[in-house]
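# nightly structure sweep
# worker-07 picked up a monomer target from the shared queue
# config: single-sequence mode, recycle default, output format = structure tokens
# input follows
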Amino acid sequence: MAGSCAAAASGNATATAVAHPRIKWLERMTQHNTAVRGVFPRGYDAARHRAAFFERPGRGRIIVSGRDRASYLHGLLTNDVVSLRAGEGCYAAYLTPQGRMIADLYLYELGDILLLAVPLQTKDTLLAKFEQFVFSEDVQISDATDAFAEIAVVGPDAPRIVAALGGDADEARLRQLPEHGNLRAAAGGRPVIVARVTDTGEPGLDLFVERPQAGAIVDALANEPSGAVAIDAATAETLRIESGVPLFGCDMDEETIPLEAGIESRAISLTKGCYVGQEVIIRVLHRGHGRVVRKLVGLVVDGEAAVRPRASIQAGDREIGAVTSSTVSPALGRPIALGYVHRDFIAAGTAVAVDGAAAVVADLPFVRSGA
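# output follows
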């Protein structure tokens, strides 16, 4: 299904085999980027309407402890960390003094520690920088990537599926978790940290479990009688792109200003105090009225195949940008893409071309949750 970011996404899910011949045929079609309008692969349909699960080996995990942990990170990151209470969390970015991204990350305040889920390729950089700026603060930083596995359960039935693992968090409590809300629980007698997530495009729950116990959790998910369907990296990537959620290392990198990627409403607090890169962000927002030279947009493309990685986007004879992620949308039956274009071409409905194929700028998300 997925095109330009399939390699990056392969770090975010594990493959699954499906026996039914019809499903195998559909998977072959989507692997060759051929859209079948109105007919959805089993795992994709499960994620949209019931529940699906996948592992996240592309994530690193960092634990920050000590009584000053929140105020310390508050001064470094773009969002309001110091106001988080136990069971709450947020999405944030860590910037250079020039306002460009070092990483994006998800923070979960557990009451005694902050758990950070970060892009794996940025984990070592973040660890080094966090350690570098600890002076007299009571802050301890540790790498928990190898200690924990991270399993996503997504779709409208995710709370029921997780509750059915035999834990002490009931379905009602899981459904009431706000975005980034988290709790400690037990699943099948195994300790687990549960966090509410939406980055796959469908509301779901991430399970952080001690790595030796991960296999048992995956088996329990796969064997639950009315349970979740395992999905592969390409399917998870298609869900993400359809939902217009940018991925660091693909749609965002070390040259990206958060406002270009459109994550400011989720990742940046406009009421907190100073953080690294704040002057640039405030200058763009206040003096520049939020205008940046380029913006991440959605594109619906004519044809049947997902467009190639870094495909050129043109308006007439002018090159105005490039594709960052692409796939074929089962819901739309068309190739779709995320890409950066010059700010003069960001309006929905603007006609452009992608590697010569007719395309149109589209509002995000392409597909809304539950569609």
